[in-house]
Amino acid sequence: MGLLLCSGGGAGARGILAPAIPRGTGERCVEPTDVMRREHMRFLLHQRDDTVRSGVRGARHSLVGCVGCHAQTDAQGVPIPVNASGQFCESCHSFVGASPDCFECHATVPGGD
């Protein structure tokens, strides 16, 4: 299995091609960037298990928190879904050919259904 490197887009410091990823709106992420790049799916699966089995919601690695920080807005201030073309989640997932099904059930914008 290869290592996924996602940066600000274009060629990285070592000449590795990477997708363009919009920055989050928060002051900083709940984990260091390199940790999130490597472990985000493990965090989300663990949070899913805690929520389903124990009813724990709104914890450190909640998908709602991720969407709240990483959903961008358009010129009118309307949130753009995180899985829309060129947006945070879609950028890396498209780059690596992943098709997660998170957003078949979960909201893609803050406060969305």
How would you describe what is shown here?
The relative contact order is 0.15. This protein has a two-stranded antiparallel sheet. The protein contains 3 helices and 2 strands, in the order ββααα. The chain has helices at residues 33-54, 63-70, 88-96; strands at residues 10-11, 17-18. A hairpin with a 5-residue loop joins strand 1 (10-11) and strand 2 (17-18). The termini are far apart. Mean pLDDT is 83; it is low at 1-8. With 113 residues, the protein is mainly α. It has a domain at 27-104.
Give descriptors for this structure.
113 residues, single chain, mainly alpha, two-stranded antiparallel ribbon, disordered N terminus, 3 helices, globular
Outline the biggest β-sheet.
Answer: 2 strands, antiparallel
Structural shape = globular
Number of helices: 3
> Residue share in helices?
25-40%
According to DSSP, the number of beta strands is 2
Q: How would you classify the helix and strand content by structural class?
A: mainly alpha
Topology order in helix (H) and strand (E) letters: EEHHH
Query: Mean pLDDT, nearest integer?
Result: 83
Distance between the termini: 35 Å
Strand residues, percent: under 5%
- What's the Cα radius of gyration? 14 Å
Low-confidence stretches: 1-8
Task: Give the strand line-up of the largest sheet.
Answer: 1-2
